[in-house]
Model the fold of this input.
Amino acid sequence: MNDLGNDVMWIDMTKIFLNKSTYEGEFKDNEPHGKGVNTLPNGNVQEGEFREGGLWNGTYKDKDGNLISNVIEGNHYY
Done:
């Protein structure tokens, strides 16, 4: 830990979660926040801008790259 407080942003890190999903990108307060890619255990991929741990603006695709939904301001549009 460092003395820079909670507003630190770590860039280009990878975090592997217990459910075996992986997130690679920017973090804030130890949560995905900023640009990144989240690969789920089933191979589906969330890519774009994350805020406070969730996809805020971007795309959600299946393991074959087919679009499942666009995500705009945290809302999925199918």
